[in-house]
Amino acid sequence: MILRTLVRADWRLLVRDRGALFLTFVLPLVFFTIFALIFGGTAGSGGGDLKPLRVVAIDEDASGLSAKLLDGLFEAAALDRLDGVETVDAAVVLVREGDADAAVVVPAGFEDAFGDFGSTPPAVRLVFDAANPMARFTIDGLLQAASFQAAPLVLMESGFDALEQFGGGATAEQRAALDALSALIEGERDGGADTGAAAGGMGALIAIDATAATERDDGESGPSIVDYYAAAIGVMFLLFSMTGAAGALLEEEERGTLERLLMSGVGIGPVLLGHWLFFALLGFAQLALMFVFAWLVFGLDLLNAQVLVGVSVVGLVTAAAASAFALFLAAACRTRAQLSGLSTVVILVMSAVGGSMVPRFIMPAIMNTLSSFTFNGWALDGFLAVLWQRDPDGSMADLLGSVALPVGVLVGATGLLLVLARRLARRWETV
């Protein structure tokens, strides 16, 4: 009887606490849905369609074999061909700036060397975006499959040509057999032969020279996944620390400190601005510590002048926006416990969707779209423009121009959130 009464009392307390109910029953389902969409789409299990890889193709050989190779490559639904790019340099720039995931360059002389058994064909060049390492291996495999689809006739005809040249020629029956076999191969290819299985069973047929678009000519290594997560984890925990610090405003209200401060003639506006400035500086220091640690321990390229300036600019506006976001949540809540519950839900969801937990390049298209509505998504866009997509030969003006959009969005968000926080804080002026 006593146990039943205690259980009933605990249940009533839980039902009255809507935040606890949400954390207990709703938040796990929200996170399950997010990760099911991400990894369900990745595995092709119906959770959503992956965003196709955007690929630029440059055909320097302009031959029948190179055309068949590229046609076979882009038959894959996982690839989206970007047209209008005519030079290799332009294609590399497009990949480096994040407007394409990879560029495929078929070099001149590819078909002639491919059909010549006495020489090795030049390697197909694959330039990929280091921010999306999946692009390299996906396109590498599809290129090998496409080579098996395009090559049989070339190899067979070259072999018969060599036989005629060095072996006394082929008979009429042999030539008829060659024509029949050619028609059979063409029919199987048009009918959707499993060239991928053939590629997997026979190994590589063509050589592929894969390089990251950010690879340096001076031999220095380009960015790594450490650079990505230095920004991703830094932004997520910045949000947590800012909302935790903003809870001091609610503590001041509970202790009566805020009331005495307002009665002394200091308006709520200066109080909010003072807290915002301190929290923003605190957040910038937190981000700075994260990047310095990544530099010292994991080799992040922080001493480069452009990287240092770019990270500082993006870090300042990110910290300012996070501080304004925290003040907005604090002004919207009545107690620190309420702030803690609400901020945990909002920050975890934004971090999952915005790329702080899982890189956005493996997310399906719908998740990439949703990330544009998150704080984490825009902050990461700014940091990645500096750490991943920066042109090593570009100027400081080029770098600042590349971060102009995410910086502008974060600055606008800062102003909007401060205005909303000020309006919500009017309740304290009536105390």
Automatic annotation (TrEMBL):
Q: Which keywords annotate this record? A: Cell membrane, Membrane, Transmembrane, Transmembrane helix
User: Transmembrane region positions?
Assistant: 20-43, 228-250, 271-296, 308-330, 342-362, 399-421
> Its principal location?
membrane
What would be one Pfam family of this protein?
A: ABC2_membrane_3
Q: Which GO terms describe its cellular component?
A: plasma membrane
Q: Which residues form the ABC-2 type transporter transmembrane domain?
A: 20-421
Q: Which GO terms describe its molecular function?
A: ABC-type transporter activity
Task: Supply the name of the protein.
Answer: ABC-2 family transporter protein
Protein species of origin: Rohdeia mirabilis
Give the classification, highest ranks: Bacteria, Pseudomonadati, Planctomycetota, Planctomycetia, Planctomycetia incertae sedis
